[in-house]
Each structure stands twice: as structure tokens, then as C-alpha cells.
Design a protein that fits this description.
- By secondary structure, the chain is mostly helical.
- It is built from 27 helices and 9 strands.
- The strands form 3 sheets. Strands 2-3-5-4 form a 4-stranded mixed β-sheet. A 3-stranded mixed β-sheet has the order 6-8-7, with helices on one face.
- Strand 7 and strand 8 form a beta hairpin.
- GO terms for molecular function: metal ion binding; metalloendopeptidase activity.
- It comes from Candidatus Geothrix skivensis.
- This is M13 family metallopeptidase.
Amino acid sequence: MRPSLSPLALFLAVPALVAGVPKGTPTAPAQGLDLAGMDRSVAPGDDFFAFANGTWVKRTEIPADRGSFGVGHEVADLTDRRTAALIQAAAASKAPAGSDLRKIGDCYTSYMGVQAIEAKGLSPLKPILARIEAIGDRQALARYLGTTLRADVDVLNATNYYTDNLFGLWVAQDLDEPTKYAPFLLQGGLGLPERSYYLDPSEGMGLIRAQYFAHVTAMLKLLGLAEAEKRAAAVVDLETRMAKVHASREDSGDVLKGNNHWTRADFATKAPGLDWEAFFGTAELQQPQVFVVWQPGAFTGLSALTAEVSLEVWKDYLAFHALQHRSRVLPKAVVDQTFSFYGRVLNGATQPRERWKHGVDQTNAALGEVVGKAYVARYFPPAEKARAQSMVANIVAAFRARIEHLDWMSPATKAKAVAKLATLKVGVGYPDRWQDYSGLKIVAGDAFGNAERAERFEYVRNLRKLGQPIDRTEWVMTPQTVNAVNLPVMNALNFPAAILQPPYFDPKRPVVMDYGSIGAVIGHEISHSFDDSGSLFDASGKLNNWWTPEDLKHFEASADQLVKQYNAYEPFPGLHINGKLTLGENIADVAGLAAAYDAYRLSLRGKAAPVVQGFSGDQQFFISYAQSWREKTREPRLRQQILTDGHAPAQWRPATVRNLDAWYPAFGVKPGQTLYLAPGDRVKVW
């Protein structure tokens, strides 16, 4: 099914010891339910998260380098240690120059070479700064901005649609013509997480803005610029004006609002100000005649600002962002200043992450699937892939049965839903074909240059898709990523190997627990093909309304009911979860958990699950689900998540259980308890 992994066998023969990484063989978490982490003084019907995780929350301290910590972080830490060991093994392997093994090792060791980075100072950045300083007119500004366009955002899967460049690019299947790729363009350019950070008049946001201004000032001083405070004020003012024209996070998540096809000629009339032909020329987008502009109002407003704001302010803005963008591979003073704002202020961390962890991130970003080959060869045996594929098949079957038995959906809509489910392509563990990195040049000792070339390589790789046949086998996550994703246009799912491990997926515990944890994740991602956005796409990936009017009305009513349910959750006084912003994820939680529950029951073939650790099968299922969302978050990080993330915070994800009838008898939940919903108020989307 995929190429042999034998060229990477060198990884397996080297001890798992990495400089800067704690010694010893990384081990997986214990199996089964964590009984000691539960708080049984809390009634499940009042707070199911606290019932399943309350003692763990009380006794757990968030690490100083984190804004949050939980089971996902534990699995990611284990994966990072394993990955670091594999990378270090590559560095020690004395592989031939230019080989994938050598590239991995050179990329990582170059990043870890802090003395060399310190000795170079800001000299690697100087060619970029010189190009910025040479901007002498508006056309030159457009040409420079074109060189900053990067493939760093996925408009259909991003959680906050973030790019630190003025505009972002994603090359993906066209929503109207699914047989071809299209270039998607979207807003960017802010140094703060989202427009509300600039515009919210609250005292808390005002304090963050003051600290951001101090950060911009400090960074301009590191660049050696005179009158840094005055120039920083102008940069922040420019970003504030940019924020005013940005689309909101809710609107950015609306597929129908985002699917705007502009011809090349449209840009001059719909977004005057920027010399678009000059921009497209240096962005190497000379050939495409049609673009998908995801936030048209932002493009109109941002383009106008390129003509209205002085070139000197734009140059200061670009210099600041160039320094910020490459802060990880520049001297310690830049790293420390970046942490002081983005780590301390925005996330509440009190110390930076260890450098080796960033080294793993950098290497994964540059050569992710090369590292992924080694990871699956060592940590994802064929038996686990087969077991995961079997679970996927069971949950898909359960989801199909749920569709077929819906009493509110017409036969015509059911047939199209089943057809879409039948074409779903599910990738488990790793891609069918590995990416080719032969064109990526990695130079030992050149951390800055490696980061630049890797980013450029990924951009060109995406540009080369234009005009080519659609590749539905492509992955957007590496195998060593602890996450999963639904690609609605491709009607495809990725379940990386790294999430298919304990405590999410564990062959040493009862299978019902796997259904409650990874099974719910699988069901969640399948359900995204039928959430408020996914349900807009037909089996071919075309943006096409395949619902009857009556069916769509029922679906939208259920969605509205779920919006109200999540709007009622209030993590901080006056700050509620945004039910509309998180709707797609909440629909997927409800439908995915229901499908996983059905699949678990079907897997028993009519038998009762054995009592384990004092809990029935249904109790094991639901507690496993709640413990899979175990997380503790600092206030600054939680506030940021509520404002910018399309996912509800982890503490509120287990509340999904209140919509499943089976949860009530499993825990004796009665009217009057906080989470109790009358049968008619329980949301059943699918």
C-alpha cells in the first residue's frame, strides 16, 4: 500500500537518547480508567467533566512553559520525545549528504546550534531588511508583499484563519468545480490573535494592547531603529486599521460567505489600492485567472491601506513582522522578547518551552513526512493500523445506520447522505504516498536559511498543484501529529499514527474504552462531513445544496438548539462560549459520540460489556470520553481560545453527553440536575 520503510531502518538501531531531552525510553500512559483522577463527590448529572476529572484538576499544576495542559499534551510530549530521538538518530547516522536522513539531522542540529545562531546575530535577516528599506514607491511595496505570500493557512480547516503575512494562500479543490485546484486567498497581517484584540474596549483587552505596544517597541529597538516608541505606535495603529476591515471569526468560518470567485481583473476594481499585477508577479501567480477570495471586504480594506498609509509606516510594519516571523532562529534577545509577550501575556506561561521541543517542531514543519516515515516504522505496527481501520469501518457503518433510521429525513436526502458517506476516503496512520523532499536544500549550521527554504519549498509545492489532477490521497497532517482532521472538499479524513496510541487507543484495555475515546474522535471527524459546513458539500466535494427544503429546515432548527445550549455556558462572568462560532465542532461532538456509542454496542453483538473497575460498559464508554478531554487552562489562554477558536474549551466538551439518551440511565441523571435535559430538548442532529 505504501513504499517500503527499509531506507529508514537506521533509526531503529540507535538508542533513544537526545541532547537536551530527558534520558530513558519514553513510555505510554497507564491503561484503563483513571479512577484516582475522578471526583466522585460530584454528581455526574451536575458536572460530568468534574466527576471524571475533578481530582486530576485539583492536583495538577500546569507546567510553567504552558498555557494549558491535559491528556493531549501528555501524548504530544511522549510523541515529541520519541520523534526527537528519531531525529537525533538521523543526525548520528552519518547518512550521505543530501539524503533525507541527513536533512533531518542537519535541520534539527542547526536549530539546536544556539552558539552559531548567537554569533550570527541579525545578519541572516539583513537581506530581507534591505529589501524592505529599498521600497521606494507603491509598486515596490506591492512587489515586496507578493514575496511574503505563503501557503500557511487552510481556509476550510483552520481554527483561527491566522497568517502573520498580509495575505495567506491555500491551494485546494475548487468548491464549485471539484475536478480542479483553485488558489484561495485570505486575510492576515495582525500581530494579535484576532480583530477583537484591537477593537474590544474592555479594560482587559486595553491592557493587552498596551503590552503589545511595548513588545513592538522592544522589537523595533532590537532592530536598531531610532524613535522606536513613535514608530511602534504607528505600526500598532496600522494593525488596528487592518483589524477594522478584517472579517470576524464567525464570518470567516462561513463557507457560503467565503466562496467568492474573482478574476484577475476584479482585483483592480473590487480592491483598488494595491498594484495587484505586481503582487501576483512576485507571488508567482502569473497563470491563475480566477481566485477564491475568502474575505472580500478585508481585501478591499487592506488593499486601500497599502495606498493610504505612508511607505515609512509600512516599512516599519514589515520590518517588525520579518523579525517576529523568524524569531525562533534568531538570537536569544529576540527569542526572549517574543516569549515575554506571546508566552507570558497571551498564554500565561512563566517560562519558555525547552529548545529541543521547538527543534522538533521546526524539523516537523520542514520535513514532516520524512520524520513521519521513521515514526510509523518504530511506533505504529501494522496490527494497530488494522485495528484502527476496523474501528473506523464499524463507526462508518453505525453512522450509515443512523442516517437510514432518521425519522425526519426524506428518502431523497438520505440517499445522497449515504452516497456521500460511501465516497468518504479515510486515511489511517500515514499517507498512501510519501512526499518527495529531494528539492529541499538543508544546510548544516544555517538555521535561518533552512527555515526560509523550507517555507519556500512548501509554497512552491502548493503552487505546482494548480493545473494538476486532484490528489485525494494527500494528507495535511504528519503521522506524528496528535490530532485528526476532516477535509470537507476532498471528503477525506486523516487520523495520524500519533493519536492512535494510549490513552486514546490502547490494545491492553477493554475495547469499549477505545470507543469512548478514539472512537468518539473518529465519529467526530466523520460527522464533520455532515455538520453545518460539511453538509453543504455533496459526495463529489462540490458546494451544492443536496437537502430538501423541509430536511434543511429541521437540520437548521437542531443546529440552532445546539447554539443556544453552548451560548449558555459561561466560563467567565460576562464571557460565554460562542455557540455559533463553535457550532460545527459541537455538531460533530454530538453526532460523533452517538455514532461511536452505537458502534460500541454493535461490536458486542448483543452481549453485555463486562463490568471493569467497578463500572458498566456504558459507564466505561462515557467516562473514557470525558477523560479524553482532560485539560486545565490558564485564564489568558482560555480567554483567547473562547474568542478565536472554533472548538469549545475542553472542559465543556464532555457536556455533549447530555444529548445522548443512554447517558441518563448509565449514571442515574434526574430532572433538576445541572446537565439534565428533557428528552425533547436533547439535540439529535444525525
